[in-house]
């Protein structure tokens, strides 16, 4: 189950409406709706508020009951570290949140900007020459030669300018 489905299930099991959850958690109803619809992911701070408001553990909201909590060693280490972070003072907790947010944003940006697999030079050259041939249709060989000569001259003069 997703966090959204777990949140919705826990709220309904307690006999609460979304508005009731707003009153006891302090989280805006629009955000609760987005979380339950899995259109947004809450911060750890918000998950904590929701869990406290519902009287459940964060684990119950975040993890699939059938899969178990912290299935891998890494998951257990992270849970232990988050538990240790909860004992830090507010300023230190905010610093940890900023670092985590920075790492997550960096990951998301890298994922979006991941370069496409580079095509071989010969394939790129073939695509360019095919486009040039299509663009040259309807023109005489003399016209094409003149354009090529002008382009070569422009490139050479630009190269000498550098």
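^ structure tokens above, recovered residues below v
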């Amino acid at each position: 189950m997703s966090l959204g489905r777990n949140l919705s299930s826990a709220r309904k099991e307690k006999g609460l409406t979304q508005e009731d959850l707003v009153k006891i958690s302090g989280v805006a109803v629009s955000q609760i709706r987005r979380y339950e619809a899995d259109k947004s992911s809450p911060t750890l701070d918000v998950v904590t508020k929701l869990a406290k408001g519902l009287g459940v553990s964060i684990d119950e909201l975040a993890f699939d009951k059938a899969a178990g909590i912290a299935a891998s060693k890494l998951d257990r280490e992270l849970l232990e570290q988050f538990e240790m972070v909860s004992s830090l003072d507010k300023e230190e907790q905010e610093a940890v949140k900023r670092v985590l947010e920075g790492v997550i944003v960096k990951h998301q940006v890298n994922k979006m900007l991941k370069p496409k697999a580079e095509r071989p030079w010969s394939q790129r050259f073939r695509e360019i020459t095919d486009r040039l041939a299509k663009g040259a249709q309807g023109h005489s060989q003399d016209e094409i030669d003149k354009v090529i000569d002008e382009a070569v001259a422009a490139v050479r003069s630009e190269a000498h300018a550098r």
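Residues 3-71+79-89 form a domain with the 434 Repressor (Amino-terminal Domain) fold (CATH 1.10.260.40).
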